[in-house]
Amino acid sequence: MRRFRVVLLAVVVALPLAGCGVPAQDEPHPVALPRRPLNVTASPTASEQAGEVAQVLCLTRDDRLVETVRRSGAALGPQRQLDLLVLGPTPAEQSQGLATSLAATGLRVTVPAPGTTAVVEISDPEEGGGRIDEALAYGQIVCTLTARPDIGAVTFVRDGRPLQVPDGDGAVTGRPLTAADYRSRIGPP
User: Fold this and answer.
1) Order of strands across the sheet with 117-122?
2) What's the per-residue H, E or C state across 128-154?
């Protein structure tokens, strides 16, 4: 009886695997992947069709971080991405309610070799350029840079000295930060 159960169990397990409908192949074959992010359902605009490389920027809407994708003809370096982040949203992004918390902020990024932790130098804030929500501003930087495949975390310095910054929950820390530290602030697109 036990042997019958073992054979029956083997047949029950093997039958679905054998008949899954995917034929075995001897050679690999190319797969055409979509060029648009999978979570975007709208048809591409002319500017999206012109570029081939997706660049993630984390902008803001209300008190939330919102990832937006811009396309360009070539991959941008981390400094150029931060420069675009400080410049803020395009007119099309503004019409969707997107903004930046980093206007008039001086940022310089380096990624010391052989690491994946970016170091962002933040200049002293300009007179009258105070932020209402610093966690949101730092979150924009961290989420933008860690969306890149070559950067895993971000630390901050001012005048070469380590800087304590707020995470997504407002806790102040000097440790390297990732997008997961701002998960509570990331909103829907």
Assistant:
1) 107-110, 117-122, 153-158, 161-162
2) CCCCCCHHHHHHHHHHHHHCCCCCCEE
Nearest to 141 by CA among 184, 73, 79: 79
Distances (CA, A) of 13 to 7, 10, 22, 24, 57: 10, 5, 17, 18, 47
Tokens for 95?
A: 């019409």
Rounded distance, CA 171 to CA 176, Å?
13
pLDDT, tens digit, 9 for 90 and up, residues 123-150: 876 554 455 678 999 999 999 999 999 9
Determine the Cα–Cα distance for residues 105 and 67; give it in Å rounded to an integer.
Answer: 20
Listed in sequence order, the residues at least 6 apart from 159 whose beta carbon sits closer than 8 Å to its beta carbon are none
| Structure tokens given for 137 | 């501003």
From residue 136, give the alpha-carbon distance in Å to each of 19, 34, 102, 181: 51, 31, 9, 11
CA distance 129 to 29: 55
pLDDT in tens, 80-127: 999 999 999 999 999 999 999 887 778 899 888 877 899 999 987 655
Residue of 29, 76, 54, 63 lying closest to 131 (CA atoms): 63
